[in-house]
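step 4 of 6: structure.
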Amino acid sequence: NVAQPSVAVAAGPVVHLCPGRIRHFKI
Amino acid sequence: APPNLGLSYRALDCDDPESEQAALVAMDYLNKNLFRGYKHTLNQIDKVKVWPRRPMGEVFEMEIDTLETTCHALDPTPVANCSVRSMAEHAVEGDCDFHVLKQDGQFTVLFAKCDSSPDSAEDLRKVCPDCPLLAPVNNTKVVRAVEAALTAFNTQSNGSYFQLVEVSRAQLVYLTHTTYVEFAIAATDCVAKEVTDPAKCNLLAEKQYGFCKGSLTEKGPLNGNEKVAVTCTVFPIQPQPDNSPVATPPAKLPEAPVVLGPLLL
């Protein structure tokens, strides 16, 4: 990860859940 | 240009409560600013990037999938009470990009762009082989069915003469020679029973809209004459306080491009 020194870098790869849940149905 | 070039963004889970909060504010904004077609409901949050904003606050850059409901955009019914259009009715999906500012715990929509598109014919056929497809709203049978249904409504009406605002959706059922239409109407300053020249009727200053579902069954080998059926719901006149945050429909709704499923914002 390239980040500014002031920005705390997460220890390991942080998994971001996107796309999120489907509330009705997918077309 | 994306906000705050040069600064990195904060990635956020799409199902994070903060994402959901921002998405619901965006959907509320969308439905308050839609004047044609149908209200939309949140279906899926596709992407979220949270950019820092100088001097304060953050901008949520979001991609959101929506689904059409069965409530017309001009219907005052809260969207939470509106059914989602089922796949068998030929569902319509919206793809939206929003920029939502979060500052002092408040969310404000800075930018919204949405497009809607109907489900594919193939997918509809998989779910319901015999269900009718959406028809182009400028199809001659559709235009004819809307004219017949609106005429029937005005003929039965003891009140104002209503004129057409937009054709919202239509389907052709060839087997029964029937055209199903849904359209929005608006009250004019004419009395329905006394209208001689509709062109001389003007929309009321205080807009009163309605929404109709109609059908026209052409005369065929089995039935001798045309059959028109129509039911309309006339919405109460929306009192608009001067400082209302709710956008009011423009006096003359812009002509929608004739496409399947009206374009959203």
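step 5 of 6: annotate
 - The radius of gyration of chain B is 21 Å.
 - Chain B has a mean pLDDT of 89.
step 6 of 6: archive
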